[in-house]
Design goal:
The protein is α/β, with parallel strands linked by helices. It has an eight-stranded parallel β-barrel, surrounded by seven helices. The protein has a two-stranded antiparallel sheet with strand order 7-8. It starts with 9 loop residues before the first helix and ends with a helix.
């Protein structure tokens, strides 16, 4: 299931090359994770749309960078109603860091997703988080083993997919949280219809998250109508006042 280099956008291939060169942790982690499902349920009970707000200083698909203190940004998102946070730890292309994640997780009570490009088991032991990301396209046939290794450490695992084949692989591996990325990492093009097309094929007992391309309240409503249990929103929250932007999306229930 792995894609060859010429099928990926050059920026993505550079990210993967950097990720492959990064080391993992020295000791196996044992994590006591905050429940993402419980956080989503609490948001729903409070009349809020379950949103994972992303602390993303920069990225290859955005202009400029947000130089605000990551902890203050994270707190503003939680104050705005975010059910959970996603924190970039990829340093070279997204301006993230392990230290940012550690500081944010200490400062908030909601679940924190580690957003990075994990390619092998040792990289799971880099830092404690509540949820880790595994991208089906990049880990290929190692998905099953990495999912098991992560869960054995106590992590919840968000398996990201973009195609029906990847969705099938995630379900077969036993993923309980699946994110459907509306961005094609081969072309870096975004199409919200990706979620709409794949969501009906996901099992009912899977927590389904819509990723990428959500920039308006109408987009939130569209993804929710298509079956999204939650949404991961980055640029649209970081571009401006994080608290106000988060409130705009979470109040759309």
């Amino acid at each position: 299931m792995n894609d060859t280099a010429d099928e990926l956008a050059p920026a993505v291939q550079e990210i993967l090359s950097s990720a492959a060169a990064r080391s993992g942790g020295d000791e196996r982690l044992s994590v006591s994770a905050r429940s993402l499902d419980a956080a989503f349920e609490a948001a729903e009970a409070d009349g809020r749309t379950p949103v994972i707000a992303e602390v993303k200083p920069t990225s290859p698909t955005t202009d400029g960078a947000n130089t605000g203190d990551p902890v203050e940004l994270a707190r503003a998102m939680v104050d705005g109603g975010a059910a959970a946070l996603s924190v970039l730890t990829e340093p070279e292309h997204f301006g993230g860091s392990v230290e940012n994640l550690e500081r944010i997780r200490d400062a908030v009570a909601v679940p924190v997703l580690r957003k990075d490009f994990i390619l092998r088991e040792a990289q799971l032991d880099t830092v404690e988080s509540d949820v880790i990301l595994l991208i089906a396209r990049f880990v290929g046939d190692d998905l099953d083993a990495l999912l098991t290794a992560a869960e054995n450490r106590g992590f919840q695992v968000l398996v990201e997919v973009h195609t029906e084949r990847e969705l099938d692989a995630a379900v077969e591996a036993g993923a309980s949280i699946i994110g459907i990325n509306n961005r094609d990492l081969g072309k870096l093009e975004v199409d919200l219809a990706t979620f709409e097309n794949l969501a009906p094929n996901a099992p009912d007992d899977v927590t389904l998250i819509a990723e990428s391309g959500v920039s308006t309240v109408e987009d939130v409503e569209r993804m929710r109508e298509a079956g999204a249990d939650g949404l991961l929103i980055g640029t649209a929250i970081m571009d401006g006042d994080p608290q106000t932007n988060t409130e705009r999306f979470t109040d759309s229930l």
